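We modelled each protein-ligand pair independently. The example shown here corresponds to the zinc ion entry; the chain sequence is given first, followed by the ligand as SMILES.
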Amino acid sequence: MLKVHILNRCPYCDGKAYLPTGKDTNAKGETYTRHTPCQMCEGTGERGKWVSLTDFLEMLNEAQCKHEHTSYRGSMHFSAGEVWDDIVEVCDDCGANLEHHTLGDFIQDEN
Ligand SMILES: [Zn+2]
Ligand SMILES: [Zn+2]
């Protein structure tokens, strides 16, 4: 099976590389938010990932698709007094889940 290595935004810190770990007080007595490097990506904000060539082609397809036709799938749920939904926007053309980051988010336009 052919595999392609891609760099993805770290899902744990969402590419921010640093995560707030709590409030602290500096020498002047001012509170500030302390940040530490994300443990998942070791402060790089990126995570390498191996995907199969089929998955990669699918991602390429999604990246090229303009997602002109989309529809919402899922529904609202009520349980134990909580309301949540699993409604996602899905592209009718390529099937991409637009709630999730796709390869297109990581391809930078040179212009
Ligand atoms: Zn991270
Ligand atoms: Zn699409």
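Residues 37 and 70 are 37 Å apart (CA to CA).
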